[in-house]
Amino acid sequence: MNIDHPAMRLLEDVKTIFRKDWKLFLIINAIYFGAILLGALIALAYPDLQISLIAATSQTYGSAGPLSIVGDAYLSGNIIIAAAITFVVNFFFGTVGMIIIPSLILPFWALLFCAYRALLWGIMLVVPVPGIMPLSVLAPHYLTLLLEGEAYVVAMFACTRGLIALLKPQSFGTDSRLQAYKKAIIDIGKLLIVVALLLGVAAVYEAAEVILVAGTAGGATQGGQFGFYDEEFGANSSYSNWTQTIPGNSSAWTSFGLSTGKLTRMHFESYGTPIDVMIMDKNNFTAYNSGTAGWSAYVTKEDAVNETFDFIPPHDDVYWIVMNNDGPEDVKIRMQLRYKL
Fold first, then answer.
1. What is the Cα 41 distance to its own chain's centre?
2. What residues contact residue 186 under an 8 Å CB cut-off, 6+ apart?
3. CA-to-CA dists, residue 57 to 111, 125, 215, 288, angstroms
4. Are the beta carbons of 107 and 101 closer than 8 angstroms?
5. Which residues, given as ranges, of the chain have pLDDT below 70?
6. Where do the TM regions start and end (predicted)?
7. FRET partner for 186 with CA separation of 20 to 30 A, picked from 9, 176, 202, 279?
């Protein structure tokens, strides 16, 4: 093996960085994954906050959201495309754009931002939510949290070394803060290769896990569009189409952010087995989910099998589509939602 080969020298440089600052690396791991655990505890204490964040994230990745390209990739069912887009977004946007570049200006940025991101992950993606993210869906995703999280830990580690270079340049073998910071920036470039490798593995696993195992948040899995009144809704509208299975004697639900007075149309099909379908706003859903009396639904379709109906939201809110299966057998349902923006 030629140790003078550029790739081998790069590998040795990376190993030297970790050997030199292994204590810092462990501390960064503790901060990041500690923030995830703290977020999980917050979710247990404030379940409404968890539901609100999940709903907001669903809108971000939905067809009208800023990261809709990611959601569309997963809905396509193509693991290679989904993995590639996930990697590009997580590396160039999530790491370089949101962690590395800001940290070159504010060296403490990575610590604060990544800890905050980990806290949000902990609130949303650790504690199971019946009907939205049951344990059977969430458990395979824990490995994604570990792989992708470790990539961000390495990015945090790289940027924090830049902060240390400014505070203690002697640790980089010089008394000059400028020279120490230059060395730290060069090391950031080397460590980004580790970040890219981890994010690459995480992207492939996440794409396979979501498409083959978990489905999208709220139980919405990939499914081809089957046409839904394009001429009436026009281009300024959002479309969702999914299938899922509701176990016997249980309920499931999913959520969408809808605007006041905007036409919303739903098509529901349960392949011959009747179930109840309801639409309610956040406050009513919270009461329903907690078992509190006094909740009501804006739309109730009892024993629905194959129906299409319209709904006009009375106010801006996150609205919940609740599907209640009172029968003993599992029911596969197909739902389609289109609404004006």
1. 18
2. none
3. 23, 11, 15, 22
4. no
5. 1-4, 55-68, 71-77, 130-133, 213-236
6. 24-46, 79-106, 118-139, 151-167, 188-205
7. 202
